[in-house]
Amino acid sequence: MERIKKLEDFLKASPRDSFLKHALALEYVKRGEDDKARDLFTEILTSEPAYVGSYYHLAKLLERNGNGEEAIKTYDKGMQEAKKAGEQHAYNELQAAYENLVY
Description:
Elements: H1 2-13, H2 18-31, H3 34-47, H4 53-64, H5 68-85, H6 88-102
Helix pairs in contact: 1-2, 2-3, 3-4, 4-5, 4-6, 5-6
């Protein structure tokens, strides 16, 4: 809980910081607070679609919660953004997760 409190405090000082939002979302995932995590990942990707790392985690969360179709769309969008950014490693991770879900 202390990590969450610290991240929330940092976000009060820098409310637009996608890195802090991503870190907080991951903490929520660890605690099983998927709704809060999903909201943060969605907020990040709405304001900063090129923040590639959040696509994987959001899609995994969606997949885990039985929303496979939305997870597929999220992986796909993440692959498109990773390709645009030239982030091959992220693209490969997204593609592997996508293929595991689809096939």
